[in-house]
Amino acid sequence: MVKFDVEGSQNVNVSKIIPCEKTDLEQLEIMERYTQTHRKYSSASRARREVECQKVLFPTLYRSIEKQDLIVGRMDFLPIGFGSVTSVGGVGHYCRFDQLHALGDRLGEAYKPRIEKLYNYWLDHDVKTIYCRENLTDVTIGRFIDPSYPLLATARLSGMMLDYPKLLDNGIGGLKKLIASKKEKHPESADFYDCCMDEMDLLTECALYLADEAVRTAQGETDEKRKAQLMNMAAVLRKISVARPETFPEALQLLWLYALPAGVINYGRLDDFLGPYLARDLDEGRMSEQDAYDYIKSLWTMIENRRTTVNGRVIVGGKGRKHPAEADRFMHIALKVCKDCRYVEPQFTLRIDENTDEQTWAEVMDALGAGATYPTLYNDEVNVPAVAWGMRVDPETATRYVPFGCTEFVLWGQSTGTPNTLINLLKILNIYMNNGVDPMDGKYKLGPIQPKDMAKIKSFDEFYDGYKELLNYYMDLSVQAQYNSYGVMNRECSFLLNSILMDDCLERGKALLDGGVRYLGGTCETYGNINASDSLYAIKHLVFEEKKYTLPQLEEAVLHNFVGYAEIRHDCLACDKYGNDLDTADQMANSLYEFVAKGIRDRGIQIGMQYYEIVISNNSLNTEWGLQTAASPDGRLSGMYMNPANNPQGGADKGSPTQLLNSLSTFDARYHAGSVQNIKFSKPMFNQNKKLIEQMFKVYFRKGGCHVMVTVVDKGALEDAMVHPEKYPDLIVRVAGYSAVFVNLDRTVQEELLSRTLYDESRL
């Protein structure tokens, strides 16, 4: 059996997690009850076991109401529990073994036997551990996050974007009636429907519990205004426990009430979902603009306090909204909240199209100029037809696309799209060039592919074909690992709360991953794309065009990290690089992109998924994986961070921002399900040239640009923050698909961010 570290890191941790309110002993007792319940229902259906286990957690895990809260619902997550993603707990029935051990250390020796009993039980029942045991290998597929491998795989249910309109239109009571009606039509699925009904009863119990908590809090409150707010919160909760919402606070509270126990950490097109309630309250005088601002800010704070780092997506604007006028009213208030709060979450996202008006553009530029890093901008004129083609859906369905996490697309209420595989294109190139051996650890990782003698390769096409052969092998591993993740999760869980608000689970009487979801899709994150393509171009140019070096000479220099080979490295660095609007490098980047993207997509369709597409993403993993990736022919040194997402290696773009954006628009968006494009400006340059930069973005979008994320920062601020972090507690930067407080990042990640070109007046 393959060995892996069950206590290793499971996700990108940047934000500082808010400590649990429960005492260590209370946590232990809850986890013991959860474990006993899991064992008791081991012979029951997975749906029944799931709901009975959730009854142990909810409403027990709710936290206290805080002073600024206008909606209710904060939640603790324990080392053992049930969830969808590792960002808040874990996937399915989970155990965070490192956290469990830490809890045992805090409790002391007397409690160690109880901790070890839990630890040993969950070694056999933690969903992610089960997946890893069945799918990881010694040298080719590693556990997320173990960057010594060329391919990483995991089990998680990231990016669930639920059908909140179904929830709001029906309310809890209406969903119960819907479930009962479907059970009559599909009696063979009675257990599934009964468990769904129990979940709705549990949600009602949670609403009433929180209502009582609001009343208890109000009884100890001396401020009459705050007391009235708390009593109103209680009234809202009692109403939505049985009836569908009618006002903005009721709709907002119901949505949040559902999201927490469902374990979802992305929220979808809230402007279209909540806009009609907001507009009605404003028009009928139940709410002022300031009230609306305060409620949206309260939601922002709730999302930020979940500390999911790369998630918390709220999407506004764009094509396909059912209530555009009302949605825009929500959007404009939300843009102001975004500018004022400057939180790292939610990942506030604006979908733009040809109808986006100048007022919206002005508000966007003001928020970015203030250093908010939000909104991120997605181009519907490109993305909607691209999604239709890539996911094999009609154009109207494609308007349902929403990004989550580090930019992966799903169709809200209709598709999965979790990125359970990640592939390092540069490490695979290193392995290919070194007779199948990874220079970083000396392990053979070529699989069944025969090593190629670099000295005998006569043309660049022959070299490239050999690299593609190895990529094909790893893409085969990737699609099987992705598909298997759904199989393992489905075997262990039903994800009932997710299933209820996803087409077509209730209609079919099937759980989400058991044939219920309308579109079973997936995504594969790719890393080192541009380092690999720049390396390919350097090989093509220096070895096969200029014939200045042989392949063995180039490989020898790389294996020695260019020590003693300064001239070769100089020539490698001097080769054309992606990001400068040069056909040479850009065409090579596009060639590699299309080969990998089409190969991944084709394999997904062949294995039976609706879609399986690459995501050109990065989080801090481009740095962590870079630490475990050898030097490369583009001139990058061993252990150095790799390029971020679809951007050039830091500093490789030597021209203007227009030239960078021209390179970024090279790739055909049909072949990916999200591509991160970052650009960084100095504050004076951005704020003194807003209209010019706005026009530059518009031209970029017209030329095929799918997306842009913007950081606006004072020149020299990042350098100073590395020396004097205490002076910059609120300095927000775009890392990739997410923002972070700069001083909270690891130094290696800070260095990668610092390496990225800062466009100032000299580069305009």
From TrEMBL:
User: InterPro entries, alphabetically?
Assistant: Form_AcTrfase_GR_CS, Gly_radical, GRE, PFL_dom
Q: Can you tell which superkingdom this protein's organism belongs to?
A: Bacteria
- Describe the location of the Glycine radical domain by residue ranges: 644-762
- Glycine radical occurs at which residues? G737
GO MF term list: lyase activity
What residue stretches are annotated with the PFL domain? 1-637
Q: Which GO terms describe its cellular component?
A: cytosol
Among the Pfam families in the record, one is PFL-like
* Gene3D superfamilies registered for this protein in UniProt: 3.20.70.20
Identify the keywords attached in UniProt to this record, alphabetized. Lyase, Organic radical, Pyruvate
> PANTHER family attached here?
DEHYDRATASE YBIW-RELATED (PTHR43641:SF2), FORMATE ACETYLTRANSFERASE 3-RELATED (PTHR43641)
The identity of this protein, by name, is Pyruvate-formate lyase
Which species? Answer: Catenisphaera adipataccumulans
Source organism phylogeny:
Bacteria, Bacillati, Bacillota, Erysipelotrichia, Erysipelotrichales
